[in-house]
Amino acid sequence: MNRTLLIIKPDATERNMIGYIINRLEKARFKIVAMKTYHLTEKEARKFYAVHEGKPFLDSLVKFMISGMVVPMVVEKEKAVSELRVLVGATDPQKAACGTIRYEIGVDIEKNSVHASDSDENALKEIAFFFEGH
Ligand code: CMP
Asked: By alpha-carbon position, which residue is closest to atom 13 of ligand 1?
């Protein structure tokens, strides 16, 4: 078993999609081992997305991520990182495979409803960001 981080983004919490996303995770046999509601500050959102420093979409992304409530959660499954990325789908909902969460409920490339860690290393860092002394 290993663990990864999923964040339900403000576009999804705003549309009352928390239950839908939890249901998709549980149906795909992920165990939710930690979860909370959270409202990011601008400083925190910039820190979380520091890898995207200099990208043209960063300012808009930060504004979006602080626009409402997010739900970070730690989920567990064998090969959690890759399995979750399959369930979540491509960044751009228009390009996401049929049946993925972003295909089903993503609005656009920014408001894509969920974030999933992209490697085991980043999963550890991102879990610590939300769940360890933060
Ligand atoms: P996420 O998986 O959280 O990682 C970075 C986020 O930036 C991405 O999902 C989108 O919400 C947002 N984003 C906006 N535009 C782009 C883009 N052109 N490429 C990648 N990510 C983008």
From this structure: 110
Pocket of ligand 1 (CB under 6 A): 57, 61, 91, 109-110, 112, 115
Q: How far does residue 107's CA lie from ligand 1's centre (Å)?
A: 12
How far does the centroid of ligand 1 lie from the alpha carbon of residue 12, in Å? Answer: 15
pTM of the model: 0.97
Residue numbers of the chain with a pLDDT score lower than 50? none
Question: What does the pLDDT look like over 62-91, one tens digit per residue?
Answer: 999 999 999 999 999 999 999 999 999 999
Residues with a known catalytic role: 115
Query: How does DSSP assign 8-47, residue by residue?
Result: E-HHHHHTT-HHHHHHHHHHTT-EEEEE--B---HHHHHH
Domains along the chain? 2-130 (3.30.70.141)
Strand pairing partners for 3? 76
